[in-house]
Structure formats: C-alpha cells, structure tokens
Amino acid sequence: MPNIASRDLRNHTATVLDGVSRGETYTVTVHGRPVAELRRVSSQRRPAVPKADLVALLDRQRIDATLAADMAWITEGTTDELDDLG
User: Fold this and answer.
1) Which NCBIfam families would you find in this protein's record (predicted)?
2) Among 31, 34, 61, 86, which has the minimal tally of Cβ within 10 Å of its Cβ?
3) Which of 49, 68, 66 minimizes the C-alpha distance to 58?
4) pLDDT beyond 60 at 67
5) Residue 39, by phi and psi: left (phi above 0), alpha (psi -120 to 50) or beta?
C-alpha cells in the first residue's frame, strides 16, 4: 500500500483517484504520519425485498388512529377562504 503525502494528494488528485478506481489503496500522510486510507468503495448492494414479501408486510400494518384523525382534520374543507386574503 503506497503512502502519499497530503500535498501530493492535493496536487495529483485525479491520478490518485484513477488508481483507487483500479483497486489501489493509498495511505495519506501528514508530516510523514499516516492519517487516512483511500480505497475503492465496495459496490455491494443490499438484496431487494421480493414484492410479495413487501406487500405481505404492508398488509399486516395497522393505521395509527391518531394520525388518521389528524389527516382527516387537515384535509377537510377547502382553501377557498385563502383567495379572499390576497
């Protein structure tokens, strides 16, 4: 794993990032002391939840009664009275 001084990283960022994208790992140093490592980000993705499992999970959920009441209160009526303010 090559070391790279912070100054060199600043001056050669594109070159270093090209190396990182190819799988190289760098140790960044400040005044000769290691302070960080640069390595390629893992591209592992979490497996998707099958649609049937998601639908089953949502079907088991219960509506929060307080939230339902609040949403009904918020959405009742119209905004026509706001036109009179302008």
Assistant:
1) phd_fam
2) 86
3) 49
4) yes
5) beta
Q: Which pLDDT score, from 0 to 100, does residue 83 have? A: 63
CA distances, 12 to each of 16, 17, 24, 67 (Å): 6, 9, 15, 55
Average pLDDT of 13-19?
A: 95
Q: Is the pLDDT of residue 59 over 70?
A: yes
Strand partners, 38: 26
State yes or no: pLDDT of 41 exceeds 70. Answer: yes
Domain boundaries in the chain? 3-38, 51-77
Residue 77 CB coordination number (10 Å): 8
Range 5-39 burial, b when 16+ CB lie within 10 A, else e: eeeebeeeeeebeebeeeeeebebbeeeeeeeebe
Tokens of 74: 């918020």
